[in-house]
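Trying the structure run again after the queue cleared.
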Amino acid sequence: MSFVEMIPKRLYIGGKILFDDWDFIKSNITAIVNLRTKPDQPPFDFSGRIMIWAPLNVKVAPTLEWVIRLMKRLNRLMESGHSILIHDTIGKERLGFVITAFYMQKYRLLRDQALYTVRQKKSDIKPPAHYMRLLLQYENYLFR
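Done. Tokens:
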């Protein structure tokens, strides 16, 4: 499996889904959040599961409102008992941004604390500078 378990049996992160990863997904994942600019195409019937396509361009950060909406969706999935996979292509930049934002709101952490915590499980996480600035805006939103 090419994914990192962030919350045991509940939240996984990684890069592009490889063919061999679909067996793990079929057995363990009930919701996929795809940050890639290309949609996922599961090799099995994904009925009864949730697939969210939230494409991000690494060169252009989304809006603060986009982040707030995605975090609310992730919270609803977690509260509903889903096991979630969040992924992008490489698993470092866009994914790093989203998982850091998730940790900020879920665990009430400041940006740098959340990033440090995330890197304890996946050390190569590196949101680009413009995404880091957006995470500061998100921090101000969370802790105002």
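Helices lie at 21-28, 64-79, 94-107, 111-121, 129-142. Worth checking whether this holds up in the mutant runs.
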